[in-house]
Amino acid sequence: MSDAMNDSINAQSLVISNPPGLAALAYRISDYHTTKQRLLESLYVQLIPDGPTLATLRTRDADDLTIALIDAWSMVIDVLTFYQERIANEGYWRTATERRSLLELARTIGCELDPGVAASTYLSFSVETTPTAPKVVTIPQGAAIASIPGENEQSQIFETSEPLIARVDWNALTPRLSRSQVITPQTHQLYLQGINSQLQIGDRVLLIDEPVTGEPLEYQYLLKLTAVDVIPEMQQTLVTWEFQQLGIRSLRAPRLFAFRQRVALFGNSAPKWETLPDELKRNYSAMQGGCFRLLLSNNSALNNSALNNSALNDNSHWVAANTGLPTIDIWCLSASEKALFAGTSNRGIYRSLDLGISWQPSTIGLSNLAITALYYHSGSVFAGSPGGRRVSIQG
Length: 395
What we know:
Layout: H1 3-14, H2 32-41, H3 65-89, H4 99-107, E1 136-139, E2 144-146, E3 157-159, E4 164-167, E5 189-193, E6 204-209, E7 219-231, E8 236-241, E9 254-258, H5 278-284, E10 292-295, H6 304-308, E11 317-320, E12 330-335, E13 340-344, E14 349-352, E15 360-361, E16 373-377, E17 380-384, E18 390-394
Antiparallel strand pairs: 1-4, 2-3, 5-8, 6-7, 6-9, 7-8, 10-11, 12-13, 13-14, 14-15, 16-17, 17-18
Helix pairs in contact: 2-3
């Protein structure tokens, strides 16, 4: 094997890449298998210029002295490179795993780890009440107290931090297990007494506070619950609501009200008018929609002569003129000398030759049956529809 080929193999085996953000560094230049392979390949290399090589050594048996020596040094290099990589990893904060390494790294910037802090707890002592027992007892500093372990736990030893005096009369004292909650403008949780509030997520509650002197109105907040947690051991219920600012001060005398019943406006479940069938719309009421005709007191239709003679009076009234119309949703009307034309919302154009007594469809040629405008001019009726389409029919 040539020197150039050997240098290429060595260069490729020594290339190590460590991109940023890794949890561990790759720092080993070789391991057991790679080292042994490289040593076997070096048997063909002239270590001394113009010197001999071991190329004539053909055996690769493990019990051969030369091969055994190569195997032993491969093992040595494997161990050395392993620890070399571990030492390199301990030199960086992200990759270090030993506490001592982190301590030394912190010291390089003038920082020291705080010493360990012992666990602490509160203790309650009771004095014997027998007639011969002393009424006052001094408990010395460092008195050991063992905790009662739970399942799969070990007992922990606590010591008193200073001497204290215990009296028989103090046996009747009990610690306070709870205190009144202060509701601030940032409060979004409230503890309620009892576990049968029947409140659920999504319910709304009303929080009211009495006004202070000089304030005209009391504070009221409508809150929507997002969580309801029952705490049986404390006989309390914790409610959480969507956060909102509760005024500008703490509540003085808060009261909470739950809405137990739901009500809705009359007719909230009725179907929409637009979705009802046309026949039902037409029969629902005579004045709900459609086309209407004004009748005079003598039940004659209004015409130009009646208008000129001022025939309108209190007895004049409107009557429906929808016979033949498929819908009562009339959007526009137009008239010629001979006929009336009605544009509907979705049924096209209808024509009446008897002043609205009866109607016939006139939709031939209409590509859009929603007619929004009608106009009569010079013997033709022009119709407009959404989308810019327009048609004309003979009047």
